[in-house]
Design a protein that fits this description.
Blueprint lengths: L18 H12 L4 H13 L6 H29 L4 H6 L3 H9 L3 H5 L26 H25 L3 H26 L23 E3 L16 E2 L6 E5 L26 H6 L1
Parallel strand pairs: 1-3
Antiparallel strand pairs: 2-3
InterPro entries: Ferritin-like, Ferritin-like_SF, Mn_catalase, Mn_catalase_dom
Protein name: Catalase
Family: Belongs to the manganese catalase family.
């Protein structure tokens, strides 16, 4: 169940509308690092949790709803950057050349398809896809995915902050960057509450995996290289269940030979059709 209030989660102001920046902000809405991704990701992760995980479901849903508010903030920012120009700016754009320049600085579909409004697309105009969403049904795996999502989202927000000189946009992005800081930390803290979450899934019996390579860094160089002595080639693994080791070459065995194709596929270049055979 959802409720809504007729106000933004955080005030959004634009002092100097900038159609080009509106195009860049679209990445934070419908891009792979955007708010649509994390909002839906957290929802689908929450909906997959069984009974007994109420605190995690609440954490995910609370954050998902907050991310919906971020989408609303960014959509408002895009619209304010596309519309509401000062009178002198509006007068300038009456000139054909200035109008053309303004149009090339924004996503044309923001004008043609949305009437100078935000859209569920990225900065290149590519529609949002559910393929961005990581919701595996495994809580530990999903929490790791959430750390990554917030990390890339925060990186995008900081780049947008660096790009703009508009005080209102910097203020809004500063808020979003701060929330990404919180969300990264809350997912990391949630991982700490799980018992032995790695390797994911922790429920699979490790004795069933190949014990010869489960903690071995395997070099893929053509010429054998000595153990470089990196933390991931020697010493105890972070999960505390194994010791890292180093292999200078891959195991290697077998040949890359495909089985014979089914005649119905017509994949055999040496197969002669019955009609060809009868004509000989």
């Amino acid at each position: 169940m959802f409720f809504q209030e007729p106000e933004l989660q955080y005030e959004v102001t634009v002092e100097q509308p900038d159609p080009h920046f509106a195009k860049l902000l679209q990445q934070a809405i419908g891009g792979q690092e955007g708010e649509m991704r994390v909002a839906l990701q957290y929802m689908f992760q929450a909906w997959a949790l069984p009974e007994g995980y109420e605190e995690y479901r609440n954490l995910l849903m609370e954050t998902a709803a907050e991310e919906l508010g971020h989408i609303e903030m960014l959509a408002s920012a895009v619209t304010k950057n596309l519309r509401g120009s000062p009178k002198e700016m509006s007068e300038e754009t009456q000139d054909t050349a200035a109008t053309a320049a303004a149009m090339t600085g924004q996503n044309p579909r923001q004008f043609l398809s949305a009437g100078e409004s935000a859209m569920p697309v990225d900065s290149n105009g590519v529609p949002f896809t559910g393929g961005y969403i990581a919701a595996s049904g495994n809580l530990a795996g999903d929490l790791y995915a959430n750390v990554m999502a917030e990390a890339t989202g925060r990186t995008l927000a900081t780049r947008l902050w660096e790009y703009t000189d508009d005080p209102g946009m910097k203020d809004m992005l500063s808020y979003l960057i701060a929330r990404d800081t919180m969300h990264q930390n809350q997912w990391l803290e949630a991982l700490e509450t799980l018992d032995d979450p790695v390797p994911v899934p922790a429920s699979f019996p490790q004795e069933q995996e190949n014990q010869d390579v489960n903690y071995t860094f395997i070099s893929t160089r053509r010429e054998a290289q000595p153990d470089p002595g990196y933390p991931w080639t020697e010493g105890e693994a972070p999960d505390g269940k194994g010791q890292f080791s180093y292999a200078a070459e891959q195991p290697g065995d077998g040949e890359v030979i495909a089985p014979q194709p089914d005649p119905m596929t017509n994949n055999d270049p040496n197969r002669t059709s019955e009609s060809d055979e009868s004509s000989k």
